[in-house]
Design a protein that fits this description.
GMP Synthetase, Chain A, domain 3; single chain; binds 5'-O-[(S)-butoxy(hydroxy)phosphoryl]adenosine
């Protein structure tokens, strides 16, 4: 088991050095010793960041589900693979063993095949956090279909955009979903979306809330009866290492969401290897990541990474505040969770509720705490460390992205000494670089710059579905021969990294990655709106919240601004989803622009953050007078 499990700092440095000196042989060893392949690779890595083209384990054949399921059956068949904790604590939790999961995946895979899905077809999965979600993901992988999971909080419009972009033939959904005390009509949202999705032939509907839904003859089918008749074994499709495993959409700074494509071999190796080390997972541990499988965190660290290690992974259907704000801690106590992985926004929200909820529960099972999705502030870090972790459980502040597939910069618990708000050191195989705006690498410590990665790692996304040029432009054009992350970072005196936040027009709200352009597009659809600009501003709980500056077409016309605000937020909610709603909307007679017509967001950002002491250079503005007006009326 050389290298696979790093246990102390000395060993980390040793492994890291090796991974950088000879990445190919390093990754080859990991791939060789810890996974089952149908055929070995011909070449470990070929790459060219200029094209860009990256291939790992080329020529190798495998099926990722054999690594996540089949190979565990002889030794771990009766071990729990998934614990399902329902929205309502009164409903019984489910413990699904590896053998049961294997059978459920096989049945589902057979249903997919029977319904006309084969290798390479795209299947959209729009499900709540119920076992069928993990089962559907794995069933696609079993037969070589490409899954595209869309977070079930997205609107009909956002769903339709994603279905059409990758031309999904099928949608898997449920009648509805539970969200705390509420239910959501998922099937209704799908029906609405499919009005504009001619590519979809079949909709499979799981029953979750037993609501009455309309079933469209010929297109919609109840899932359960099909599963009941399906055979419980299904041979795995033999796939190429570089065949796509899934598409997952992420917001960009402009226009359409980007369908990031991840391929099988490298993704499997990297997510499994990081899972083991980032959480120091030991056999018998109960691991819980509170993310939704609709995000990359759920793909990599609820489904694939844990299952590839034969771990027990908990899937939670509910929300942190139902039935009360103690729910997370109650679930930890109930299932004796050993590794707990959540987002800073959740930590801040729960910290606000006081310590009583935490103290009411026995959290002694916790060994490791994790955080992901946005920079964690000092206060939240200490609260997490002291109140939840009793200063005994190291916090792994894991920095990574949808595009990176797995964790990139992180402490290893009990290995790397932690430092509040620092993601600390690169994972083996990851070669970060800080760049200045002129495109030079900044060497040495105690420096700050734009965060890039110099060398490929196995789980880097290979392209944007249907738009390789955009992939190149977004990630490989800002700095020569480097992957550009879009984040800024600083490196302290010992070489620890701290992520300072996005340097582009992406805003992270409650850990959700939101592009400004799609939100502005939605606002501009309002008949009264001439133009708009969105910026982020600091928010106690969400990290950032959205501030919109809106100019109206007919300034003379008096309109009820509060009504307009409601209409604008409704539009955003319809087009994107409630997560993208604006906290503040300021109506203004104009937006500050450069002479070339570019909106000066820097100024708008400062005003929204109430940081107007130094607005920087406004001399290049076409309309400097508008800045004063915006400042006078700032919300
Ligand atoms: C962006 C990626 C990775 C899964 C969830 C988000 C921010 C992520 C951290 C962290 C500071 C972080 C970055 C990154 N981010 N983790 N530990 N510290 N910032 O995936 O939606 O693709 O967002 O999230 O800005 O670029 P994503």
């Amino acid at each position: 088991m050389s290298n696979y499990h790093i246990k102390h700092l000395e060993e980390y440095f040793q492994v890291y050095r090796k991974s950088v000196r000879n990445p190919e042989s390093f990754w080859e060893e990991v791939a060789e010793e810890h996974f089952v392949w149908r055929k070995r690779w011909d070449k470990v890595l070929s790459w060219d960041f200029n094209k860009p083209e990256i291939r790992w384990f080329e020529g190798a054949k495998l099926n990722i589900t054999e690594n996540c399921l089949d190979r565990h059956l002889p030794t771990k068949g009766d071990k729990t693979a998934i614990i399902f904790e329902p929205n309502d604590p009164k409903e019984e939790a489910q413990h699904i063993t590896y053998k049961q999961l294997y059978e459920r995946v096989c049945r589902m895979a057979n249903v997919l095949t029977e319904q006309g899905i084969s290798k390479g077809d795209r299947v959209c999965i729009y499900l709540p956090m119920i076992p069928e979600l993990a089962v559907s993901v794995l069933a696609c992988a079993r037969i070589g279909a490409i899954h595209s999971v869309v977070f079930a909080g997205f609107s009909a419009n956002a769903l339709a955009t994603r279905i059409n972009d990758s031309e999904c033939k099928m949608v898997i959904t449920s009648d509805g979903s539970y969200r705390g005390a509420k239910t959501i009509d998922l099937k209704g949202i799908v029906d609405e979306a499919l009005k504009s999705c001619p590519c979809v032939e079949t909709v499979l509907v799981a029953k979750r809330i037993n609501s009455e839904v309309k079933m469209q003859e010929g297109r919609d089918k109840w899932l359960q009866p099909l599963l009941d008749h399906a055979y419980q074994d299904c041979s795995a499709e033999v796939m190429d290492s570089e065949d796509p495993l899934f598409i997952l959409y992420t917001s960009g700074s402009t226009g359409q969401p980007k369908g990031m494509v991840h391929t099988i071999g490298g993704y499997m190796v990297y997510t499994a290897y990081t899972f083991k080390n980032v959480f120091q997972y030991r056999d018998g541990d109960i691991y819980w990541c509170t993310a939704d499988v609709g995000w990359i965190t759920g793909h990599s660290y609820i489904v694939y990474g844990p299952l590839a290690n034969g771990a027990t992974t908990l899937m939670f259907e509910g929300i942190p505040t139902f039935p009360d704000s103690g729910r997370f801690w109650q679930v930890v106590e109930k299932h004796k969770v050993n590794q707990f992985y959540t987002a800073p926004t959740a930590i801040r929200a729960l910290a606000k509720e006081g310590v009583e909820h935490v103290e009411a529960c026995d959290l002694s099972s916790i060994k490791v705490l994790g955080t992901v999705g946005e920079p964690i502030n000092e206060e939240a870090w200490h609260w997490y460390n002291e109140t939840v972790g009793s200063k005994k459980s190291p916090i792994v502040d894991t920095w990574w992205q949808t595009e990176t597939g797995g964790v990139m910069i992180t402490p290893l618990p009990f290995v790397t000494p932690t430092k509040p708000t620092y993601a600390t050191l690169p994972f083996p195989g990851i070669q970060p670089a800080l760049m200045d705006e002129q495109g030079h690498e900044i060497s040495g410590n105690q420096v700050e710059g734009r965060l890039c990665i110099k060398y490929p790692w196995p789980s880097i996304a290979r392209t944007i579905w249907g738009n390789h040029q955009r992939y190149k432009d977004t990630y490989f054009s800002a700095f020569e021969n480097m992957y550009f992350t879009g984040d800024g970072a600083l490196r302290d005196e010992v070489g620890y990294y701290r992520i300072t936040g996005r340097v582009d027009d992406v805003i992270i709200v409650s850990g959700h990655n939101l592009g400004t352009a799609p939100i502005e597009d939605a606002i501009n659809e309002h008949p009264a709106v001439a133009e708009s600009a969105i910026v982020g501003f600091p928010h106690d709980i969400k990290g950032n919240a959205l501030y919109g500056y809106v100019t109206l077409k007919d300034v003379g016309e008096s309109r009820d601004h509060n009504n307009l605000r409601k209409e604008i937020n409704q539009l955003i909610s319809d087009r994107i989803g409630p997560i993208a709603k604006l906290d503040k909307i300021q109506f203004t007679s104009g937006l500050p622009k450069t002479r070339s017509g570019k909106i000066m967001r820097r100024i708008l950002r400062k005003i929204a953050s109430k940081d107007t002491s130094n607005l920087g250079d406004t001399s290049t503005l076409l309309n400097p007078e508008v800045v004063q007006e915006i400042m006078d009326n700032a919300l």
